[in-house]
What we know:
alpha/beta
Amino acid sequence: MEGKLIIFSAPSGSGKTTIVHSLLTRNLPLMFSISACTREPRNNEKDGKDYYFMTVDEFRNRIKKDEFVEWEEVYKDHLYGTLRSELTRIWNQDKHVLFDVDVAGGINLKKQFNDRALALFIMPPSMNVLKERLENRSTDSPEKIKIRLEKAEKEMEFADKFDRVIINDQLDVAIRETHDAITEFLDLTY
């Protein structure tokens, strides 16, 4: 089996992680790619499960050693990326790689893997809904939410660089549309 990639990108708060986790409970030959990052873990996040948490110095050293397929400095000293070893780990298990990455990372991965990758952009129904979602998850300060919203506006300008845009207005509908796009791309019949 030639391993493929399913790339999810979206502004923070769009629901991409919720959609990804829902898909991972289904009978699809997918495995989540664990990203590396330099931010602090949130409440229930575990190193090696949710992210590979690294110091900024460790991350930058790995960049120098060309250990990343893609990486991005999302905010100052907040680096995110995908280790090459993740692709190998997943493909060795006869699974396809599922990414939950920053918009820039999603575009970079699509450029690198072209037809082997399906790039999906999860779009919030509106900026007001996005703001409400960010506030309701109670993980960020008002200042951080403002920064995320400004970044979201910029990220949404790149939605047309993705193979499919899925508007997450109703979660169950967005999950179904996403599932259908993936099964079609992987040529699976369920």
